[in-house]
Each structure stands twice: as structure tokens, then as C-alpha cells.
């Protein structure tokens, strides 16, 4: 929690910076705490408790800019910290594009509470936390003779942020989160010890799934037994809802203002052009109550609003913050997306699989990368071979290779099953004609 | 446990942490030599703790019957400056200060930390961490504290970063920018980063060990974006060492500029190869990523004591050709992965993990060493005072063999030569590992022909190790800015390798 005393400290830091040679400033104060219980083979393995604070001071000095942070919140030390950093900033090259946002763009308040923090956070007893992890571990231990080791962990955290700018913004955010993870290793073929996991996370303790996490992790590892490579070739590809967001990430990077301004993108000068497939209708919906990622203002204090990002594959917006907007001489939008949603179809993963004759279901990525200026990608994968609408063989040690623009033009169906715990709510996806390499 | 269970490595210098100045209570710090000579006296004074406070906190940590406890004090100053669009116009810095209390009870761990170092706060943290134990055996004593002076001193600095200002640093980035632009007229954008950090570490434990370590780190990187006929490509070059400002030389700038431009310009001629299983020649240097992923992580003893690594039953067994030796080394002067003493009081050392083809040692921390009844290999490392130490690699490399690179390439009819890499990952239990090849060549009839780019290579650890059939005489350490991730903790490492042939790996590509 940010105490009034700490708010006063942030306000004091700003005033002190302005009095000592700074023309504008943004000050943010973070405070967070977390606990975790990790159980391995029905014994407590790790107990971890943490709480931290930090102060970030952004200084605009004579047309120059620097950003400085510290977890030493003693006033006397902060005075020297701020003064010395003002002096250091003066050495830098002038950068006229560095300004605070226009004050008309700030969030001014008045919207309903986003309800991101569990009011019962402090009432959850350590024994209940520990027992949840123990119960999850129990769902795996001894439930199959091939189990080598089973772990489960319970974690919770609370984060607070307070932010002020010298041209009038003041804002505060808070969020809690709870997670429960089950993870299990089993004896496989030869020396192999396949491992899998399952988890749930939620903003509220009561909303978190507490039963079946271990059971599901065990199911997920057992179905991996007998993994092998299959033949290289073109296949339909289904990516499940645990992994589909990974494929969106290079697209979101490519429409970020810094990437555009630095020519580090494969989507330069593409606004209002059709660059992705018809099925890609993607929105930013920042104001969903009780939803991870929800927010009324971005990291600059600028008010967020629901926005269309792609409509039927047509690019509708870039993510442009104040600095990049000034640099490129264009209007700013918002610094980054909050909650991503994609227009969904009506099938879940099982139904998508049933519709594929020869394909590969990707249930995990293993390394790989994407070239940020060309969109060329290559990722390691594991999953299942699909034949005649059925999963017939677990596969691993294969690569999927292609180009992001081509890939998203080959999207034929969007599922209906996004994970609720993620702020990028991307369901299972079905692409066609994708290059896999294996045998 | 972290939800993201990936164990990975990545290269580059995109991460800019940022201090420009020492806080006031550091002002008395005259030089690293002086602080080092002062040792624990400096440490205790720096963190304003007395020997009797330390003993009280250690005793509180054992109140519930723990077997062992340690206190890890850290003060780190990070600074970064950045050049983009031709000007050094951004500076960052961060000050991080605190201490962590760890209590071990068998192989169980309790951990808590504080940012505000007072006796009351430390006692509170110690009592939280102590709860891991639950025994009546509370008569364990805290041994008398005595200073440990490690034998090795692998990163003595000539000129510390603390007194080197933004003004002193800026010309180096500017020169690097100008050199890159001068090398090729297709250069369109350059971003360059210089980061440095200085850590003061003070440690003590219930066995009576106490030490102070001064840890410098610096990194210089350049990202180059070139445009040719409407096509845009990007690549980068970076170097990182545990050094003072003597790191910055004109030679370094020349090397980085040349490398960044060469690595970017080759991409314009490069294609994606046809994918599938084929022989892969790993070029000298960064190919050490193969060792890091294929065997390094799976040799970390936490996975092996839990029996979850694919190498869990292979200790003292032959795992590859008898000419192969693989080392994990914390003693290379100025190396990014070096440790005078690890983060739980064990001296830095050089560890053969594969000797003459035999898996000779896992990489241990205190918990796993006790489990196996041996001495720790000094691999217990932590990201910072907020984290517990776990087995981590340092500089991982293969020793040189006896053939030339030409002979290796000439032995391959159709395959791939991998030159540079961006990142890799591994599944510890299944053994599947991958690394991403930023650029390389096709090998056709024993010769390097068409440049290739942007492909992932995947293999299985024990199989790939057994499939290394030729090792070159051209060993090279890669001093790029490698950062390894495990259990949510980042750790600086390096890797090295002579050129080597892996007879079969699965190469990504189009069909």
C-alpha cells in the first residue's frame, strides 16, 4: 500500500527536482509484497516472503532527459540523488522531443473502480496457502508409477503504484494476484524425464481454480509419452490457448512507436492497409472490470480507451507515445495495449482439431526467434500430429518456420477459448500451409 | 516456482540498466583497491552492521531448528547511457540496496529480505525465514565469524566506474555510432548502449564465514539497421566484462563497429535453408550456446538431485567422444561469468563437467553438494539479494581439439555452418534444446556457399553430445553480453567453443 507519508515523499521529490534546475518531472513510487510456498514431493521446499519499494524520478532538464530509480527512500540521500542526477542529465545531448504529455490527454478520474485488488487479501491464512499447494501436489504424487517428482506452488502478490507529473497528473493503481501451479516429471523412454505443468491465476483468491491443477499437469505429461519427430513438410497448424499469444507478440512489437521510429519493424507505413488475414479483428479493451491488465491510464498518465487495432486484417492504429509522436511529427495514441481481444469463432480446441485432416497441434514452443525487421521466424515446438481430426502421435524436437505476415494471412479459424487469466485473451488458432521441419 | 519454467540464454545489450553517482554514504569510498583491502571492515561499515548484530540475526534464523543460515548484503549501482538518432540523449540509473536471510533445513529453504537494513527489520526477516524448519533441535550454535579471503581475484579494476561521469562516457558511444555509419552507406539507424554496474557484496553465515566482494560489470552494444533497395535488416554486436573503465578502448569500438556492420550486411544475401535433419558445423565462439543448452543446464545439480534431468543417471558415465572436455569456469580474468567467491561463500573454481568424454561433475550449490556428500563447485549464484542462490553456470566452454576448421567443413557434403546466435532454450527433463541462428552458411560438397539466416535449430542433449564427431583446434571464448534465465532469475554468463561438427540436428526451414 502507498501510505500518505510515501505520497508526500513523492511530491516532495518532485518539488525538490523542480527547485533544483528541472523544468518538468514525473515521479513514480512502487510498493509491492509477495509470498510463495513451494511444495516438492509433499514437503515444503521453499518459503519466500518479500516486500519492496522503489522511487523512479524522470527529469527534464534544459531540453535533456534522464530516468533514475532507487530503493533508498531516505530524504537526505534522495536530495543528493536528485541533485547529482540533474547534473548528470545536463551533460546529455539536447532532445526536444522529450516532453511530458499534453495535460489534456491525462486521465482525469471519475470512472468506476476497476476492482483489481482482492479486499480479502490479508485475511488468507498461511496454513490455507500451504495446504492448497500440498493438495495440488497430492493430486500428482503416487498417482502414476512413472512419477519421479511432483511440485506445487502457491503464490500471491499485491502491487501499488502512485504517479505524479509536474503538469498536473496524479494517479494511483493497485492490483492483487494469486497463482497455483502444479508441475510433474515422469520417467520416459531411455534417460528422458518429460515434464509438464498446469496453473491458474486470478486477481481474486475466490476466483482462482483450486482443484484439479495437479491432475491436469499429470494428464499433460502422460500424454507426452512416446514423443517423436515426424516428417518435414507443410501442415495445418493449430496452436492452443496457452501458446497462441506468442505468435501475436512480434506483430505487437512491429506496431510499437519505437519500432516504427527506429525502422525496426516489418509494418512501417501500413496504416489502413490490409496486412493480415480477414479473420484478424483485434481490439484493445482497457476498461474491463475485474480483469488482469485493466487500466484507465498508461505509464505516461494518458487516458486509455477501447481501440480497434486490426479490422479484418486492416491495420487501424500504431501505439505511439508522446516521445515517438514528437520525434515523427505525428499524433500520439497510447504507449501500449492493455487487454487484447480477438473476434472469436464458435469452436473450442477439440472442435478445431476435429476439423483438421493432416496437421500439427502445437502445445509448447521451445526457443526460437523472429527477425524484427522482416518478420521471418523460426521456433522449436512440441505437440501432436493430427490425422483425420484426431491426435494420433505426440511429437517433439521439430521447428516451425515462416514469416509473420504470411502466417497471419493463413489464419483460417479463431477458437472460442481464451485463458481468462491472461491480459492477451487469445484463444486457440488454426493456420493452414505451415512449414514444419523434423525428419 | 515460477510459472515461466523456461531455462534460456540470450545475447545482446538491449537491456539498459541504469547510476551515475554514488549515494552520499558511499562518498568515502576512495578506490576499489582500498575497499578490497579493507574487506569485511568496509563491508560492515558500508551496511552499518556490527558483528554482534550479525550474530543476533544468524541466531534468530536458527531459532526453529534450521541447519544453516546465511546473510547476503548487496548494494548495486547500475548506470546506462543510450545513443539513438545520432545523439547520446538518454541516461538511466538504478540504486538497489538490501539484505536477504536464508535458512536451510535439510534441502528445504526459507527466505526473506529487507530493503531497510536495521537490526529490527533483519530480525523480523530472519524469523520469517526460520519458519522453514520445525524441529526441537535448537541448540545449533553460530560459529565465530572470521574473514574468508578467496585465493583468486579475477576482476581487479584499474579505474572504477563510480568516478566516471556521463560526460566521460558519451564520446565512446558517439564514436561507435560514427564508425558504424562510416563503414557502409546502407546503414540507416544505429542504437548504442553502454551500461556499467558496481556491486558491493557482504556475506556471513552460521559456519562463521564472512567475506566482502567488489563486483564490477560493464557492457557495450550496438544495434545496426541497414536498408538496401527497400529491404531492412538488423543485427548487433556486444562485449561485456567484469572490468573498470579501462574496458573502453578504440580497438573495442573498431571491433564492435566492424562486427555489427558485417553481421547486418550478410543478411541481405542470406536465404532460409530447406529444413530437416542434417550435419551442423558450429563455428568457434558463440557456438558455446550449444553447451549451455544441450548439457549445461541439465548438469545443474538441483535438477539432478531431484532426478528431473535427462542426465540424472549418467554421472561418471561416458557421454561423448573421449577427446571432448567441457569446463564450467569461474576463474577467467575479467570474464562476465567469473566469481571470486559465489553467493553462498564457496570460492570460484574451474570445474570439468565432461573430462575425456566422461560426465565427471554436476554444477553444485550448497544444497546439492550436501545431498551428494561432496564439496560445492562454487556455482551457487543469485540475481540479487531478493533471491536465493541456485546452481548456475559461469563461463562454459569446450577445450580445443586437434583438427582445423577447414577439415571439419570439408567433411560435410550437405549441411549448415552456424556463425552467430541470439538465444537458446532447453527442456531439462526431456532434453530437447534449441538455439536461434542469426546468420550462417550452407555447406555444399565440403565448402561454405550460400549465406543463411533466421533459423532455429533443435536437438536432444545426450544425443547431440554423442553426435559431436570432430572438434577444431580454434577454441574461442565469446565475450558477448550473455544473460541466462532460470527460475525467474537472470545471471551473467559466457560461453565458448572451438569449431565442431554435430553429425545430426534438426534445422528449421521451408519445404
Automatic annotation (TrEMBL), chain A:
SUPFAM superfamilies: Putative modulator of DNA gyrase, PmbA/TldD (SSF111283). Residues 120-225 form the Metalloprotease TldD/E central domain. Gene3D superfamilies: PmbA/TldD superfamily. Residues 27-85 form the Metalloprotease TldD/E N-terminal domain. Residues 232-438 form the Metalloprotease TldD/E C-terminal domain. It comes from the Bacteria. InterPro entries: Metalloprtase-TldD/E_C, Metalloprtase-TldD/E_cen_dom, Metalloprtase-TldD/E_N, PmbA, TldD/PmbA_N, TldD/PmbA_sf. Belongs to the peptidase U62 family. This is TldD/PmbA family protein.
UniProtKB/TrEMBL annotation, chain B:
The keyword Hydrolase applies. Keywords: Hydrolase, Metalloprotease, Protease. Residues 69-133 form the Metalloprotease TldD/E N-terminal domain. Residues 276-509 form the Metalloprotease TldD/E C-terminal domain. Residues 160-266 form the Metalloprotease TldD/E central domain. Pfam families: PmbA_TldD_1st (PF01523), PmbA_TldD_2nd (PF19290), PmbA_TldD_3rd (PF19289). It comes from the Bacteria. Gene3D superfamilies: PmbA/TldD superfamily (3.30.2290.10). Belongs to the peptidase U62 family. This is TldD/PmbA family protein. It comes from Parabacteroides faecalis.
Amino acid at each position: 500500500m502507498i501510505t500518505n507519508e510515501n505520497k508526500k515523499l513523492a511530491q516532495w521529490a518532485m518539488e525538490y527536482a523542480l527547485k533544483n534546475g528541472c523544468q518538468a518531472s514525473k515521479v513514480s513510487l512502487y510498493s509491492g509484497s509477495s509470498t510463495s510456498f513451494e511444495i516438492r514431493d509433499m514437503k515444503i521446499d521453499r518459503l519466500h516472503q518479500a516486500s519492496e519499494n522503489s522511487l523512479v524520478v524522470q527529469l527534464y532538464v534544459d531540453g535533456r532527459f534522464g530516468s533514475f530509480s532507487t530503493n533508498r527512500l531516505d530524504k537526505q540521500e534522495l536530495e543528493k540523488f536528485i541533485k547529482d542526477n540533474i547534473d548528470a542529465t545536463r551533460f546529455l545531448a539536447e532532445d526536444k522531443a522529450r516532453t511530458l504529455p499534453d495535460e489534456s490527454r491525462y486521465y482525469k478520474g471519475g470512472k468506476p473502480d476497476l476492482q483489481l485488488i482482492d479486499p480479502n487479501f490479508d485475511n488468507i491464512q498461511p496454513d490455507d496457502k500451504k495446504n492448497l499447494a500440498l493438495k495440488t501436489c497430492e493430486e500428482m504424487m503416487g498417482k502414476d508409477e512413472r512419477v519421479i517428482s511432483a511440485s506445487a506452488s502457491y503464490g500471491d502478490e499485491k502491487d501499488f503504484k502512485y504517479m505524479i507529473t509536474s503538469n498536473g497528473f496524479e494517479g494511483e493503481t493497485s492490483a492483487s494476484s494469486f497463482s497455483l501451479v502444479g508441475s510433474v516429471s515422469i520417467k520416459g523412454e531411455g534417460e528422458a524425464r518429460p515434464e509438464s505443468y498446469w496453473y491458474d491465476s486470478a486477481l481474486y483468491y475466490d476466483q482462482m481454480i483450486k482443484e484439479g491443477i495437479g491432475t491436469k499437469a499429470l494428464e499433460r505429461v502422460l500424454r507426452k509419452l512416446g514423443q517423436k519427430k515426424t516428417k518435414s513438410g507443410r501442415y495445418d497448424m493449430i496452436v492452443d490457448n496457452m501458446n497462441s499469444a506468442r505468435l501475436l507478440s512480434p506483430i505487437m512489437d512491429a506496431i510499437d512507436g519505437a519500432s516504427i521510429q527506429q525502422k525496426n519493424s516489418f509494418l512501417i507505413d501500413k496504416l489502413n492497409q490490409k496486412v493480415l488475414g480477414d479473420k484478424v479483428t483485434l481490439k484493445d479493451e482497457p476498461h474491463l472490470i475485474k480483469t488482469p491488465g485493466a487500466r484507465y491510464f498508461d505509464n505516461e498518465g494518458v487516458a486509455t480507451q477501447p481501440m480497434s487495432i486490426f479490422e479484418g486484417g486492416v491495420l487501424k492504429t500504431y501505439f505511439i507515445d508522446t516521445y515517438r509522436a514528437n520525434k515523427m511529427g505525428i499524433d500520439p495514441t497510447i504507449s501500449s495495449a492493455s487487454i487484447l481481444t480477438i473476434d472469436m469463432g464458435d469452436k473450442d480446441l477439440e472442435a478445431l482439431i476435429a476439423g483438421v485432416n493432416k496437421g500439427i497441434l502445437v502445445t509448447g514452443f521451445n526457443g526460437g526467434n523472429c527477425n524484427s525487421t522482416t518478420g521471418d521466424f523460426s521456433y522449436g515446438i512440441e505437440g501432436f500430429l493430427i490425422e483425420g481430426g484426431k491426435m494420433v502421435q505426440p511429437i517433439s524436437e521439430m521447428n516451425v518456420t515462416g514469416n509473420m505476415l504470411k502466417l497471419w494471412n493463413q489464419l483460417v479459424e479463431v477458437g472460442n477459448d481464451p485463458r481468462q487469466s491472461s491480459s492477451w485473451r487469445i484463444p486457440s488458432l488454426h493456420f493452414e500451409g505451415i512449414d514444419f521441419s523434423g525428419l | 516456482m515460477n510459472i515461466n519454467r523456461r531455462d534460456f540464454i540470450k545475447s545482446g545489450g538491449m537491456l539498459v540498466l541504469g547510476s551515475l553517482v554514488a549515494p552520499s554514504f558511499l562518498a568515502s569510498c576512495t578506490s576499489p583497491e582500498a575497499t578490497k583491502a579493507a574487506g569485511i571492515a568496509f563491508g560492515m561499515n558500508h551496511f552499518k552492521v556490527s558483528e554482534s548484530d550479525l550474530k543476533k540475526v544468524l541466531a534468530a534464523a536458527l531459532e526453529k531448528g534450521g541447519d544453516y543460515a546465511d546473510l547476503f548484503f548487496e548494494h548495486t549501482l547500475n548506470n546506462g547511457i543510450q545513443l539513438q538518432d545520432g545523439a547520446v540523449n538518454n541516461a538511466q540509473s538504478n540504486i538497489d540496496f538490501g539484505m536477504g536471510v536464508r535458512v536451510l533445513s535439510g534441502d528445504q529453504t526459507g527466505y526473506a529480505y529487507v530493503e531497510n537494513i536495521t537490526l529490527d527489520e533483519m530480525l523480523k526477516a530472519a524469523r520469517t525465514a526460520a519458519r522453514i524448519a520445525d524441529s526441537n533441535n535448537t541448540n545449533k550454535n553460530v560459529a565465530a565469524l572470521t574473514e574468508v579471503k578467496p585465493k583468486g581475484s579475477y576482476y581487479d579494476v584499474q579505474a572504477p566506474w563510480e568516478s566516471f561521469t556521463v560526460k566521460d562516457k558519451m564520446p565512446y558511444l558517439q564514436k561507435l555510432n560514427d564508425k558504424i555509419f562510416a563503414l557502409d552507406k546502407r546503414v540507416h539507424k544505429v542504437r548504442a548502449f553502454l551500461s556499467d554496474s558496481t556491486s558491493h557484496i557482504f556475506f556471513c553465515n552460521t559456519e562463521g564465514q564472512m567475506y566482502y566482494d567488489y563486483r564490477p560489470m560493464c557492457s557495450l552494444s550496438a544495434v545496426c539497421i541497414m536498408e538496401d533497395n527497400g529491404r531492412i535488416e538488423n543485427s548487433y554486436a556486444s562485449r561485456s566484462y567484469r572490468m573498470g573503465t579501462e574496458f573502453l578502448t578504440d580497438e573495442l569500438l573498431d571491433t564492435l563497429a566492424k562486427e555489427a556492420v558485417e553481421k547486418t550486411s550478410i543478411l541481405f544475401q542470406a536465404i532460409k535453408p530447406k529444413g530437416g535433419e542434417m550435419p551442423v558445423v558450429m563455428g568457434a565462439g558463440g557456438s558455446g550456446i550449444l553447451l549451455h543448452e544441450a548439457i549445461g543446464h541439465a548438469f545443474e545439480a538441483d535438477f539432478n538431485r531431484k532426478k528431473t534431468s535427462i542426465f540424472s543417471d549418467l554421472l561418471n558415465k561416458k557421454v561423448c567422444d573421449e577427446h571432448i572436455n567441457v569446463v564450467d569456469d569461474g576463474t577467467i580474468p575479467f570474464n562476465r561469468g567469473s566469481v571470486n567467491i559465489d553467493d553462498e561463500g564457496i570460492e570460484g573454481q574451474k570445474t570439468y563437467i565432461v573430462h575425456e568424454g566422461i560426465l565427471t561433475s554436476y554444477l553444485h550449490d550448497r544444497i546439492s553438494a550436501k545431498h551428494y556428500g561432496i564439496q560445492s563447485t562454487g556455482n551457487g549464484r543469485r540475481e540479487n539479494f531478493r533471491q536465493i542462490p541456485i546452481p548456475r553456470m559461469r563461463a562454459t566452454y569446450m577445450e580445443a581439439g586437434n583438427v582445423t576448421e577447414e577439415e571439419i567443413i570439408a567433411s560435410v557434403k550437405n549441411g549448415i555452418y552456424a556463425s552467430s546466435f541470439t538465444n537458446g532454450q532447453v527442456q531439462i527433463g526431456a532434453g530437447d534444446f534449441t538455439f536461434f541462428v542469426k546468420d550462417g552458411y550452407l555447406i555444399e560438397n565440403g565448402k561454405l556457399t550460400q549465406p543463411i539466416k533466421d533459423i532455429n535449430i533443435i536437438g536432444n542433449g545426450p544425443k547431440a553430445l554423442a553426435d559431436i564427431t570432430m572438434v577444431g583446434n580454434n577454441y574461442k571464448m565469446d565475450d558477448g553480453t550473455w544473460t541466462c534465465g532460470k527460475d525467474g532469475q537472470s545471471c551473467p554468463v559466457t560461453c565458448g567453443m572451438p569449431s565442431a561438427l554435430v553429425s545430426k540436428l534438426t534445422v528449421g526451414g521451408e519445404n
